[in-house]
Amino acid sequence: MRPLAHAASFSAFSLVGLVCFAFGGLACQATDPLDSTQARKLDASERDALAEAGQSEAKAKVEGESVEAAGVRMTLPEDWTVDPSSAADPNYLLAVGPEAGAVHSPVCSIELRRQGLGALGKAFRVAKREGGTLDYTRGPLRGRARELPGPSPDARVLVHCRGSRKGGGWGAIQGAFESLEVVGEATLASPPAGAGVVELCTAQPVRRTQVCARRGDGGIYCGETEGSALERVEGLPPAVELACEFGRSCIRDAEGVAWCWRPTLAPVSFAELGPVRRLSDGCFVLEAEGRVLCAPGDARLAPESFVAVEGVEGVEAVLDGSSASSGCAWVPGAGTACWGEAEARYSAADRAALAGLDGPVSALEDWSGRLCARTGEGRSEAWACAAEGTLRRLDGCAARACSCAALSSATFSCEHETHPRVDLRPLARLTGVSTKDGPCVGGSDGRVVCRGPDTQTQLQVRAGTEADIFHALDWPG
């Protein structure tokens, strides 16, 4: 087995080896992070079938080699291989069993998640929950997982192994869990070094997704996510905020004036609307009475086409993706106000939990289905996410660089988010991420990396070169 190599620093925006195997998503409750009300328990016959299948597997501690990440050590058989993607991140390890060619080959991972794992999901079936360890099945998969305390109160170190319900390797997984030892502590990454990419936004005007990046000097650069370069958007003052929706991208300058443009149209000033307090993807918060104006469902650049959200005033921030018909906003003293479909999407308990935040809220975002609020900005920012009426507090990627996995054909999942579904396959891993939106991430060293370039290839490739999975966009000059 190749020993795990730890990187000395997270400041580099590293492109590391491929990860071709799925992780699982587990529930993260206030009392028991492995508990879930969404998962259906197995009936007696299903439990008996699993127990019978496991009787032929070795249950003794596996003799082999020790691997370690995030302060946790486990022993795996000598014929397992540590994936090269583990080398750049001391809080991450992926080890693969000898059935590497199988669709659901045995695999074990250790990783840090800053707010735990999230909901298990209705497609999962709980086989057994005992002593903080959860056994589950999902279709042809059988898995075991355990969450351990992380470096901050709401962070969790996840130890997760899984394989085919019909294949071998379960004895090795049992032995790995019996060998678990806490030998240290996971460490949060250092703050991002340098100005780098401060903010990203992505939008899909027709077929080609656009990405725009804001640098520390306020310059805005845009390009196609499947392209090879970014170009500076001329005719804009230095920006302090950036947002995208449909084919329209907008900034707010230091004077509070909003400017919007399209890939084929020059920037237009929205000064006639008055000073803008905040932007979101699709909406402006005006300084005047904190009113919310949202864009129509197209890419028009006419200020008069923006529609006011009725009955919502005194707003400080609007949830990204909001519209005049559905969305949420933060109102000081009142908490989160939602309208339309968003009112049912986020529970009253979660909205009430966020109402207890101290300090002004500067942004609202949805992270893997959780409603999250930001206080402060840049390296002084702090986030809180509501989960079943409980707040999970964590640093965002701007305050402490994130490690992110490329998933499916066009997304990234970063450690500040909850874990996605088990059938989403991590294909590669990046470190040193300071900002993320949709299919792109930005690094503290200034690099912008997007999924691609060929979506069809991404869906088919499970191993190969990094160019099959993602690519960097070059800056002009």
Compose a concise summary of this entry.
With 477 residues, the chain is mainly beta. Helices cover 8% and strands 40% of the residues. The chain has an 8-stranded mixed sheet, covered by helices on one side. Strands 1, 32, 33, 34, 35, 36 and 37 form a 7-stranded antiparallel sheet that branches. The chain has a 4-stranded antiparallel sheet with strand order 13-14-15-16, with no helix packed on it.
Can you tag this structure with a few keywords?
5 helices; globular; mainly beta; disordered N terminus; single chain; 477 residues; 2 domains; eight-stranded mixed sheet; Methylamine Dehydrogenase, Chain H
Task: Report on this structure.
The chain has 477 residues and is mainly beta. It folds into two domains: 22-182, Protein Transport Mog1p, Chain A; 197-394, 7 Propeller (Methylamine Dehydrogenase, Chain H). Helices cover 8% and strands 40% of the residues. The chain has five helices and 37 strands. The chain has an eight-stranded mixed β-sheet with strand order 2-8-9-10-11-7-6-5, covered by helices on one side. Strands 1, 32, 33, 34, 35, 36 and 37 form a seven-stranded antiparallel β-sheet that branches. Strand 26 and strand 27 (335-339) form a beta hairpin. The longest helix is centred in the first third of the chain and has 12 residues, at 44-55. The protein is globular. The relative contact order is 0.15. Keywords: Signal.
